[in-house]
Amino acid sequence: MADSLKLTPASALHISRHMIAAHGLIPNTSIQSRPLLIYHSAFEPSSVTPAALEEHLHAVGAVVPQWRYTMYPTSHFHSTTHEVLAVSWGAARLCFGGDDNPAKVEPTVRKGDVIVVPAGVAHRLIKDLNEGGESFEMVGSYPPGCNWDMCYGNAGEQDVAERIAKIPWFERDPVYGDSGPVLED
């Protein structure tokens, strides 16, 4: 099935890079100084299926697909791992950085996009842009051996910065392997 998945050559890929300032108890990109990355149309949308995305991500080996779902509507972040989200269906407007953060980013993502969310970056669904039929869906993936947690920037979460600082960055690009945008930043 992955043979039918059409990967955009890295040289032709449009990438958005966002450094997002800490806000309250949400660290965003301040600890590791790694940007939120959006690979726009990393895969030709007409070729994308959840199974094909999972097969491709497994084959590259930088991350392990763990779920298929939409994005939670509540701002949250992970303190134990970086996250790779491959859009498998539809389109949505998302929020990165925290709702009240003046530095937040609110992109629209679509089927075929891939988002690399560094540990500590808050994210949530603002709006599913699909009308009728199936809902916005992503394949959520994490580096091998990593398990995600849920943090909300609440009191009592002050120790997360120490955990985030210890998380190694990717040694391979989750989409392109031995080279690619995640290795350039």
TrEMBL record:
It holds the Pfam family Cupin_1. Residues 76-123 form the Cupin type-1 domain. CDD domains: cupin_YjlB-like. InterPro entries: Cupin_1 (IPR006045), RmlC-like_jellyroll (IPR014710), RmlC_Cupin_sf (IPR011051), UCP019307_cupin (IPR014500), YjiB-like (IPR047121). This is Cupin type-1 domain-containing protein. It comes from Exidia glandulosa HHB12029.
